[in-house]
Amino acid sequence: MNLLSRADAPHQRLPMLNKVPEVTLFFWIIKIMATTVGETAADFLNFDLHFGLNATALLIGTLLAAFLLMQLRARRYVPWLYWLVVVLISIVGTLITDGLVDNFGVPLATTTIAFGLALLATFATWYASEKTLSIHAIFTTPRELFYWAAILFTFALGTAAGDLAAEGMQLGYANSTLMFGALIALVTIAWHVFRANAVLTFWLAYVLTRPLGASFGDFLSQATADGGLGLGTVLTSAIFLASIAGLVIYLSASRRDVQRAVPDNAA
Length: 267
Fold this sequence. Notes:
- The chain is mainly α.
- It has 9 helices and no strands.
- It is globular and about 50 Å long.
């Protein structure tokens, strides 16, 4: 009887299985859509519902804390729970950056550099403690805590970098989307063609999908006068949330993204 089948046995405390999904095309599609929702949902709650940054941060932060605790207590990868945490942490990452910029006047260039350094420090501490940054080895609580800390900083960094490109450098939402998409394509080529390190290219792509999704979300939702398509935050968020829900339901049923055991040094 293998470990997956034994995990269903009642009243049996089993070793923790890998807590994150396999990196497939579905993973990247949902990840990009989650980053888009993080941008548009934060704007919807903050501006459309007039919650303001502080109330929005309190609401989403409370939800994130509750579902992250459930995620940490789980013994295996649960698609709906994992991706709900990703969506919530995406919104929180956006709110952290927006709060620093809007409430405290911190320049976007400064937040981009600061969150970049915070992410590097997280990776350095993670590697010093666990000797791996592989997402195929998230089967202990310390590794999972490092993983979610890194995810939070990638979202905050990506929000700052996306806003810096689109607004600070005045590239516009469409051009920023194309630029970050091109950078992801280069990372993909480096991995497929030149056999670049799998762990390094994964995290580079993960960071870059945040500003890609944020820029794309702003392009869809913002008014045409501001360089967007004018779909609004409600419609944009609803479309992407429905798409995420549909894919997560499919993955829950098919289990196509359940990881199999691989060495620690794999991506």
